[in-house]
């Protein structure tokens, strides 16, 4: 049994009842596993209200500020935490020194943050190295959700933290995804935050390059919200693609919906380790995506789907064309690897191993 009793988990993550995703399920499963070990966990989330999915968690949610660090710091003197864990929070900032000073906590920082394809500009790289030296010593354990992430943590903040940097892959509850059993030919899905770095504008351009005959064979449902939504909808309208591309907003029913599609489309420029890809493959739905971030750690080109260079609209159009003409086919069950290597249980156990005195 772990000797420590109180854990604070700080998440720059918005709780939304209309979006119950892989991370929501991880948070709930992790909380349950901690309770089984006699640990009490307080959860701090940013600018949101807790909902019924989180009813068994002790949640502190800020409704008025987007800065989760500031929100947690308001509570920092009221309780003493033996362990502090961060998710989706910038690494190596003064916050970590403040927590260490106030609590003498064992601090675990989990990095979910993607990097630009070309890497950070020189000024930011220098700044990160300085931050790594100044504040990295206050973090006892760094966790990366893919090997790509681990490599970039060390590249960003310095090799001096290599001994306390660990790989813990993301995982999903594979049991809730109904597996595709029919071809569902021409029906494809996008499940993504709608921002420029996700490359959905490239998908629209690629669809516009297809012949009229192939367009008539294609139906793409987009699930998600974000700052680029109006721009993307306008582009679809400009190209008269309303019959091919439909925006559906966020949905908490993706585990049931995925089986209705033949491919997941993810033309992203930046990715850390995609839960959407795991979810799609768990439903036996192959993926068309880019080899950025941790994607190549999941996808074998031609086996689990097809990879194309980020930003290469013509290559994406070519893949769509060949899929619709049945020159490119994924005929095998693509869920096997996900069940074996990327389960929610394996993810939870990996994170528990990061705790001291396990």
Fold and architecture overview:
With 358 residues, this protein is α/β, with parallel strands linked by helices. The chain folds into 2 domains: 176 residues, Rossmann fold, CATH 3.40.50.2000; 168 residues, Glycogen Phosphorylase B (Rossmann fold). The protein has a 7-stranded parallel beta sheet, sandwiched between helices. The chain has a 6-stranded parallel beta sheet with strand order 10-9-8-11-12-13, with helices on both faces. Helix 1 links the parallel strand 1 and strand 2. The longest helix has 15 residues. The protein starts with 5 loop residues before the first strand and ends in a 6-residue tail after the last helix.
List the helices and strands and how they pair.
Layout: E1 6-11, H1 22-36, E2 40-45, E3 58-61, H2 68-75, E4 83-87, H3 94-103, E5 106-111, H4 122-135, E6 141-144, H5 147-157, E7 165-167, E8 187-191, H6 200-209, H7 212-215, E9 219-223, H8 229-238, E10 245-247, H9 254-257, E11 263-266, H10 275-282, E12 287-289, E13 305-307, H11 313-324, H12 336-341, H13 344-352
Parallel strand pairs: 1-2, 1-4, 2-3, 4-5, 5-6, 6-7, 8-9, 8-11, 9-10, 11-12, 12-13
């Amino acid at each position: 049994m772990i000797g420590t009793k109180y854990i604070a988990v700080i998440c720059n993550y918005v709780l939304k009842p209309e979006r119950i995703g892989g991370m929501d399920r991880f948070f709930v499963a992790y909380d349950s596993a901690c309770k089984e070990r006699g640990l009490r966990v307080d959860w701090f989330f940013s600018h949101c209200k807790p909902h019924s999915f989180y009813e068994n968690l002790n949640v502190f949610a800020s409704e008025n500020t987007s800065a989760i660090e500031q929100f947690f710091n308001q509570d920092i003197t009221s309780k003493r935490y033996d362990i502090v864990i961060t998710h989706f929070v910038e690494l190596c900032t003064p916050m970590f020194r403040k927590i260490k000073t106030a609590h003498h906590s064992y601090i675990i920082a989990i990095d979910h943050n993607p990097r630009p394809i070309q890497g950070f500009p020189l000024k930011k790289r220098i700044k990160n190295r300085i931050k790594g030296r100044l504040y990295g010593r206050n973090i006892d354990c760094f966790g990366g959700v893919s090997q790509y992430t681990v490599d970039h943590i060390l590249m960003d903040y310095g090799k001096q933290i290599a001994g306390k940097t660990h790989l813990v892959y993301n995982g999903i509850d594979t049991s809730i995804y109904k597996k595709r059993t029919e071809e569902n030919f021409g029906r494809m899905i996008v499940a993504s935050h709608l921002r420029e770095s996700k490359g959905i504008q490239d998908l629209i351009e690629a669809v516009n390059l297809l012949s009229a005959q192939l367009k008539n064979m294609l139906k793409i449902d987009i699930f998600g919200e974000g700052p680029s939504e109006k721009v993307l909808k306008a582009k679809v309208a400009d190209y008269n693609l309303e019959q091919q591309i439909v925006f559906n907003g966020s949905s908490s029913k993706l585990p049931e919906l995925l089986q209705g599609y033949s491919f997941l489309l993810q033309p992203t420029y930046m990715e850390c380790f995609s839960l959407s890809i795991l979810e799609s493959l768990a439903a036996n739905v192959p993926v068309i995506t880019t080899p950025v971030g941790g994607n190549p750690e999941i996808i074998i080109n031609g086996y689990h789907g097809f990879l194309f260079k980020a930003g290469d609209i013509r290559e994406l159009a070519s893949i769509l064309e060949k899929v619709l003409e049945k020159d490119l086919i994924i005929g095998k069950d693509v869920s096997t690897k996900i069940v074996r290597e990327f389960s929610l249980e394996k993810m939870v156990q990996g994170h528990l191993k990061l705790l001291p005195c396990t």
